[in-house]
Every structure is written in structure tokens, then in C-alpha cells.
Amino acid sequence: MKQQQVYNLKEFAARHHLESIFGAYAAHIYIDDLCEKDFIEMALERTLFTKLVLVTRGRIKMGVLQQNTEANNSGRSLSAGELLVVSPKHVIAFSEMSRDFEAECILVDEEITADVVYQLSDDKQKAAIDIFHIIRDIVRHQHIYKVEMIQSMVNVLKLLVSELPYENVSVTRDLRHKKEVYEIFLHLLYRHFKTERQIRFYADKLNVSAPYLSRMIKDISGTTVNDHITSLLYKEICNLLKQSDMTMGEIADHLHFSDQSAMTNFFKMRAGMTPLAYRNQG
């Protein structure tokens, strides 16, 4: 019997013409953009990466295949609000997709506790969608630290499915777990950096003091909270200058600078040139 080929993420993306892809590390797919036949065939292929499927509407039948055996749990339906995590050693046999079925998928070359289905509350589903979209946006745009940013978001997703809330999180009993708090800080930062520049905002969200958060971020990352914020702002300006037709004033408004001059000065201090010169360079 011919052995089934096993694809890494880059090979898989090329085979299925995926557009939101970063090398052999991460990809994002809107499953509702695929026809049912393509999605079912895609899921049956053996791969070297973890697959996370978040159903946002409708339902589909599923079963886990192991070592070319028949699917178990073949009568189990995956429904809206559920998150399926599939390890590299398994494939999923899908069938009977409802007409209104919609889902998103993150493919990532990371080890995640897998082969489980999580039922998400409305709040957690919204948080999961936010994380999926952050990963999608990181994959699509130019970033110096793409792998690290995606790793951070995957770690936040791990915390989410472990029932750790975000927006009103209490970390009193977890202060020793500085790395976990750091991942939550990054999640909040990616969601709010365009509008929130003050450390107090993030400290309040985490229920810790601003001095504690400042020390913790510096201990873990070697850089300050302000460094994190300004780095994201600078990269976002670079992305908008290269990837959009927005005017300088529109970019300044979008990123909540006081005016265009403030954004220009901010950018010149980091790039050594004006935003317009950066846009016009090759």
C-alpha cells in the first residue's frame, strides 16, 4: 500500500494555494471560502503542524483518524462556538457540512495539547476570533519578529482554552507565573495599542500595579512597556505607508496621534526619515 505523503505547512499551503501564510510556521484560512469537497479533502491530508478550527456558524460531522484507521467518534457534530484542536499525528474526517457552515482555521507549527473540542462561551468565542484575526494580520504584514508575535498569540490562545479570562483577569494567585502574565499583556497590547499608550491602562486590566508590570515586562523581555508600544506603533505606520493609500493625516488619526506633525516626529525619530520619504523609497 502506498504511504500517504506528509506535508509541512509551506508544502501544504502551496498545494492548496493558501494566501495568508508565513513560511512553514503559521497560516490562517477562512473555511467558508472553500467548497465542501475541497475542505474535506484538505482535512484528510497528513501534516506536520497543529490545526485549530473555530466554528462560527452552522455545524459539520467529524471523526478523528489515527494511522489510516477508520474514524472514531464519526457521529460527533462540531457546532458554532466550538474550537477543535488537532495534533499533527491525526487527521480529521469531516462530512455532512451544513449549508450555513462558517469557520476559521489557524495552522501552526507548534506543540499544543490537541485532539480535543472546546465549547466556548460567547465572550471566549469573541476573544478566540480576535486572536485568530491578530495571527492572520501578523501573517499578512511585514514584521521583524513575526515568529515571536505568533508564538505569543498561540500562547494566549492556550490560556483562553484553559478558561483564563482576559478583559477582567485576576492574576493574584498567578504572580509567580510571570510568563503567562506577559502573554496576556501582549494580547491586550495587540488589541489596544492604537488607542492606549499608558502603562496604567494595561496594569488595570491585569489587576497589578504599574510599577510591578513595568518591572515584570523588563525582566522577561529586556525591554520596557513603552518600547513594546512604540515598536508596534512604528511597525503599524510602516505597514500602512507601504500597504495602504491612506494619507499622512488619515494614518495619524487612525493611530490616535494628536496631529500629523506628532506622528511625523515620532516616525522620524525611529526611521531617520519622514513618513513620506519612507513611502516613496523603493
TrEMBL record:
It holds the Pfam family HTH_18. Keywords: DNA-binding, Transcription, Transcription regulation. Residues 183-281 form the HTH araC/xylS-type domain. PROSITE patterns: HTH_ARAC_FAMILY_2. This is Helix-turn-helix domain-containing protein.
